[in-house]
Amino acid sequence: MTNNTSQRAQTAIDAVADAHTETLLQLDPGFATTLGLPGRETEYKDYSPAGYLALAEATRETLDRLEDLAPVDDVDRVTLDAMRERLGLSLEIHEAGLDLMDLNNIASPAQDIRAIFDLMPTDTPEQWRHIAGRLHNVPDAVSGYIISLRSAKERGMVAARRQVNIVIEQTGKYAEDGGFFDKFTAGATAGGEALPEDLQATLRAGSAAARDAYARLSSFLAEELLPAAPEADAAGRERYALMSREFLGSAVDLEETYQWGIEELDRIIAEQEAVAQEIKDGATVEEAMAVLDADPARQLHGTDALRDWMQGLSDKAVADLAGVHFEIPEIMRRLECRIAPTDEGGIYYTGPSDDFSRPGRMWWSVPAGEDSFTTWRETTTVYHEGVPGHHLQVATATYQRGLLNNWRRNAIWVSGQGEGWALYAERLMDELGYLSDPGDRMGMLDGQRMRAARVVFDIGMHLGLEMPERWGSGVWTADAGYEFLRKNIAISEGQLKFEFTRYLGWPGQAPSYKVGQRLWEQIRDEVRSREGDAFDIKAFHTKALNLGSVGLDTLKRALLGWD
């Protein structure tokens, strides 16, 4: 791995990319918080149509500056290819008005405005003052978002009724007395010391302002947006194709990918059936899972036990893999496992700050009422979110200051490449023997089955395709889709409802995991075929990770050649 202290001379393309990143930081102070950069800790980006227009204008200007520039090396070639693809697509999305109507149960401004507080440090009174300032700015951020949603509604563009309803519920919880904002600020201390009384008062006022803003958003959604929301969940082919490109960085044949997903699902089920026999002779997959669930050695009780187990498994993976299968510099080896401050469901990763003073973090948002967990289901998840999954991938790009410009390091994330790598990493850990226990391997296959089922349901539902005969008949419907997912995703009812709603509201995102894994494996196998006995998988991984996150087409060209 190239050391981050070795400097590659900046090129004209790097300069444009870095300037664009600076513009992004100016337009979005939350992006600076994500990177751990000081200066505008109390501010939000403009969520109104004017804010989206300003971003579009800056994007066009950057593309114009790139027009006459020629790459001087392979790093430049990747940057130019990636920027033209990513920035060009973002303009298409803006021109289609999809940014203004952005609302779903997991990744829209409704959640983002709140979620930025998860990344803000709380060690000093000054940091709590930043938090107080941002709390007081939640109302303006919410107001801008409401204006955008209203503008999109006037163009006939409103998220499906199911998404509006779930966000009404989420925002109502944020607005409650004793909800997130009150819990976050109540009893706040710095280094164990009580905060000054004036700061405590400011925090209480800020919490109240944020709650009131979310109450206003919840009312707007219920009274104004919900009556205009369509009943149909499906995005339709035109919108879906655009969003699929956004998440993949590639325009795939959707029907071919749908058929491949059906075949991949069948293959994984057959693999599960074979593992089930190792767990209990004659058992079905469901019966084998019940055996695993009932095993006291595989059970965790309480979120503290869950967090501690995640941390221990993560630490072992880092220690075992560093220097043997992957290059992992010391500064990247710290990864924190945490229970998220929300109960919406889902497990996710947040990257380190630019200087690694804030480490990468693995978060588990435990649905309300759930207090028991099984390790066999989640061993592979720790590898997915941590090492060699997202943490290794994201932290490597952050570390490569001497090789990659700031846009490449910090401002680009393509789900198909990133999530595809994480699934690839799960399979790799199986190949390396870390999932040799039949229960842990069943957990990995269970996760892979879920991702294959997502391909089938997501494409089939949003494009209105025929259901596979094994699972039903006729065109996909939401109800038939829920039953299909229930049969193929072995998670709690609360988690399943969250996932189901997510797939319906975030078209194209869910298939990017498995489709991305497919391409990662195809690229690796082609490189191995070309190099023969000289193929070095550790070197392949190092080269690939040093690219940072790019679209899948850019990834393929970078690793297989530009011809």
Note down, in words, how this protein is organized:
The model has no long low-confidence stretch (mean pLDDT 94). The protein has a domain at 12-232. Strand 1 (189-190) and strand 2 (193-194) form a beta hairpin. The strands form three sheets. Strands 4-6-5 form a three-stranded mixed β-sheet. The chain has a two-stranded antiparallel sheet with strand order 1-2. By secondary structure, it is mostly helical. The radius of gyration is 23 Å and the shape is globular. The protein has 23 helices and seven strands.
Q: What about the largest sheet?
A: 3 strands, mixed
Strand content: under 5%
Number-wise, the strands total 7
Order of helix and strand elements from N to C terminus: HHHHHHHHEEHHHHEHEEEEHHHHHHHHHH
Q: Strands of the biggest beta sheet: in what spatial order?
A: 4-6-5
| Overall radius of gyration | 23 Å
Unreliable residue stretches: none
Blueprint (SSEs and pairs):
Blueprint: H1 12-27, H2 29-35, H3 49-66, H4 74-95, H5 109-115, H6 125-154, H7 161-175, H8 180-185, E1 189-190, E2 193-194, H9 197-225, H10 237-248, H11 254-279, H12 285-294, E3 299-301, H13 303-321, E4 335-339, E5 347-350, E6 360-364, E7 372-374, H14 375-385, H15 390-399, H16 406-410, H17 415-431, H18 438-463, H19 478-488, H20 493-505, H21 511-531, H22 537-545, H23 552-560
Parallel strand pairs: 4-6
Antiparallel strand pairs: 1-2, 3-7, 5-6
Helix pairs in contact: 1-2, 1-3, 3-4, 4-10, 4-23, 5-6, 6-9, 7-9, 11-12, 11-18, 13-14, 14-17, 14-18, 17-21, 18-19, 18-21, 19-20, 21-23
